Amino acid sequence: MIKSFLDDNFLLQNSTAERLFHDYAKHQPIIDYHNHLPPDEIANNRSFPNITEIWLNGDHYKWRAMRANGVDEKYITGNASNKDKFLKWAATVPFTMRNPLYHWTHLELQRYFGIHELLNPKTAEAIYEQTNADLQTADFSVKGLLHKMNVEVVCTTDHPTDSLEFHKQERVSESDLKMLPTFRPDKFVVINGDDFLSFLEKLEHIIGSNISTFDDLLVALENRIDFFHSMGCQLADHGLSKLYAVDFGSTELDIILQKRKENKPINKEDAAVFQTAILYHLAKMYHQRNWTMQFHLGAIRNNNNRLLRQVGADVGCDSIGDYSQAEGLSFFLNRLDEEEKLTKTILYNLNPRDNELFATMMGNFNDGTSAGKIQWGSAWWFLDQKDGMEKQINTLSNMGLLSRFIGMLTDSRSFLSFPRHEYFRRILCNLIGQDVHRGELPNDIKWLGEMVENICYKNAKAYFKF
């Protein structure tokens, strides 16, 4: 029998999977502990005038698909009208079959707008009109959309020089939603980055003094960490290609920083030394405040120089890198562990060849102080799809404790992306249900259901203690 597309039992292949999802996973609240949502739009409860602005603007997943489908850039990031951009996306959707975008697109239309028709050129006009009409109502403001998806916590991604004014505004609001900042110091970690000096100048302005030495920089960043901490921050995040296994001395760090301030070139060896040193000191600051430290490793970014110049960064021109990860990870985590300064840590990898590497690396540094202290994070970015999630769940099951996993996040810039939590939950329940039906797990629905609840929500709640 052919199943209906995207019915109530979508992705659920047997009765046990169905029961686990509908009885245990489906209604769990969402703790979205890593995303790129704009804090001002949450605090101000923004309403969007049309579906293009909330759904297509900033979504580089869709942009990549449209380019692959031969769509001109003016309909993607250019000056075409919002309606024309939507119609070009609608014309692309039928060609995304077997790409996760096909599932996500129709899940989002169903869950937010109650639209069960497939999006294509024939239905595009009507769907554009209906979604735009819905977006004018109070239930479709930003907070209305988050409430609709049962979102309890969102952790935004914020630069050390950010004022956090909108987090402050949200803290004194009467909203049930908790919005917390995440400290993302990449601009100060990658010393040969194009905007290192401009952000250093911003930091000097904020703290009211010059940053002449490496110690000055550490003092300034700790000042910002304390400010973030006062605003409820409990997480730091770092998006890097890799970690390095190098030693460093205080004198050479001052020399490297001074050379960069004089706009002289920094070679790869010095850049690796500087990155390792600053991350080591930051990690100790995180540990002191009981923060959770995250590392997103393995992307090669901005591959297309033409589009970088024309449109900017984060426009769908990044891909999986083939960096060596094991030695640097081991060196960095081991040094902190030896000094008993290793805080709770979540590791995310982008290259699937490194799945087993990351799954086994995190197991080296659990110390009994808390369940699942070192986590291998959910399938990330290009791996954030059915096959990638299944591989991550299976590898974690084989080499760690799936039952202690803190589950899914959106890592998204879109307020319509939260059905990805449902997508993950369905995949999780289906894998467990298949094991039961094969006799590989006992048919203990009470315990399996509790395990599912924990992975979907309760583990994250206990881990972060928001």
Short structural summary:
With 466 residues, the chain is α/β, with parallel strands linked by helices. It is 49% helix and 8% strand. 43% of the residues are buried.
Mean pLDDT: 97
Structural class: alpha/beta
Distance between the termini: 46 Å
Low-confidence stretches: none
Radius of gyration: 23 Å
Overall geometry: globular
- How many domains make up the coordinates? 2
CATH homology group of the largest domain: Metal-dependent hydrolases
Number of strands: 10
Order of helices and strands: HEHHHHHHHEHEEHHHEHHEEHEHEHEHHH
Task: Give the spatial strand order of the biggest sheet.
Answer: 4-5-6-9-10
What is the overall number of helices? 20
CATH fold title of the largest domain:
TIM Barrel
Question: What is the helix content?
Answer: 40-55%
Please write the CATH class name of the largest domain: Alpha Beta
The appropriate CATH architecture of the largest domain is Alpha-Beta Barrel
The major β-sheet equals: 5 strands, parallel
Strand content: 5-15%
Describe how the helices and strands are arranged:
Blueprint: H1 15-25, E1 30-32, H2 39-43, H3 51-55, H4 60-68, H5 82-92, H6 100-113, H7 124-135, H8 142-148, E2 151-155, H9 165-171, E3 178-180, E4 182-183, H10 186-189, H11 196-207, H12 214-230, E5 235-240, H13 250-261, H14 268-288, E6 292-297, E7 299-300, H15 305-310, E8 319-320, H16 326-338, E9 344-349, H17 355-363, E10 374-376, H18 386-399, H19 419-437, H20 445-464
Parallel strand pairs: 1-2, 2-3, 4-5, 5-6, 6-9, 9-10
Antiparallel strand pairs: 7-8
Helix pairs in contact: 1-19, 1-20, 12-14, 17-18, 18-19
